[in-house]
Design a protein that fits this description.
With about 325 residues, this protein is of the alpha+beta class. Helices cover about 35% and strands about 20% of the residues.
Length: about 325
């Protein structure tokens, strides 16, 4: 956990091996982030849900509703209602109040602590984390619907660029990664394929300010980036450019608009040697009936961590209510 990827890759004498490892994971991150990923795949404990993330989320929604849960979509939480140092409910953006015996935030950590709780319960440890810990990056995510089969291509490709691709925010990239979804027939009609490109960026402020100050230029820059990336892919996949039928471009601003994640980060605190040795309390000192769970409470983030957090909290609440915790898979 204390060894960084930079330290690890420098142990290799072969320059190509150094290059490979430097392209996988940022150099300041712990080697454990590589080991965990490889271990999950070896154990077949990680995979891709056919249909992508939406059916996966809908499966959770369906089970939750079947158990009697209720969901209020399109309702942003403005504040956690506190009375006598006890969380008793939430206030929505539209002014509506909802009350409950237990309040659980699986939302963005920064928004929860500094906005919904107004920073009143900030500990030195949390303050240090939000001021100094590295984050997972945000991203520019480009999706292309292509009138090509592409079944002869591997599902993932890393393309090294003869000239660096410079984003409008100043970020430079010497390679891009393609995902070719020729293995998922649900994402495109027969004979066609969905292709995506994810490009990391830590410059979320640039995209947010650009969208707010000059939406026309923001749209123009997105379109220009899509054209650049299409040209790059066309060099690898001849005829690609002429066969693109649909284009969608998401920026760090888009990520924040949809998820409210701090800086548009897609998994919270990065798994550095410092963060991996930190444990954040699920409860907040001085505030009863409140718990935080999810990727911002466990450095390294991700869906498995968030799911386990929810399960552990359910078990804890069962114990508090003197009920037997039962877990089953239908």
């Amino acid at each position: 956990s204390k060894l960084t990827m930079d330290d690890f890759q420098n142990k290799w004498e072969n320059e190509k091996m150094k290059e490979i490892f430097s392209s996988i994971i940022p150099g300041s991150w712990s080697v454990l982030s590589l080991i965990f990923g490889m271990a999950f795949q070896h154990l077949k404990a990680a995979g891709y849900p056919v249909g992508g993330s939406l059916p996966f989320a809908r499966n959770i929604e369906r089970e939750y509703l079947k158990l009697g849960g209720k969901i209020n979509y399109q309702n942003k939480v403005k504040e956690i209602t506190v009375e006598n140092e006890k969380a008793i409910g939430i206030e929505l953006d539209n002014g509506n109040q909802l009350y409950a015996d237990e309040i659980v935030s699986a939302a963005d950590g920064y928004y929860t602590i500094f906005k919904m709780l107004k920073g009143k319960y900030l500990t030195k440890k949390l303050e240090d984390a939000y001021e100094n810990y590295s984050l997972f990056p945000s991203s520019l995510y480009l999706g292309f619907g292509v009138d090509m089969d592409l079944s002869d291509y591997p599902h993932a490709l890393v393309m090294y660029l003869p000239e660096k691709l410079e984003l409008a925010d100043g970020t430079e990239h010497d390679r891009i990664s393609l995902n070719i979804y020729n293995f998922d027939p649900t994402l495109a009609p027969e004979g066609k394929t969905t292709v995506t490109v994810l490009i990391n960026s830590w410059k979320d402020e640039y995209w947010t300010e650009l969208k707010k100050s000059n939406p026309q230029l923001y749209k123009k820059i997105k379109n220009e980036l899509a054209e650049k990336v299409i040209d790059i892919i066309n060099n690898k996949i001849p005829g690609f450019k002429e066969k693109v039928e649909t284009i969608d471009v998401s920026t760090p601003y888009t990520v924040k608009r949809y998820t409210n994640n701090w800086h548009g980060s897609y998994e919270g605190f990065a798994p550095t040697p410092k963060s991996l040795t930190s444990k954040f309390a699920k409860e907040i000192k001085g505030l009863d009936n409140f718990n935080m769970i999810g990727q911002w409470t466990e450095p390294g983030g991700g869906i498995p961590t968030a799911a386990l957090d929810g399960r552990n909290l359910a078990r804890k609440l069962c114990k508090k209510d003197k009920k037997k915790f039962i877990s089953k898979i239908n």
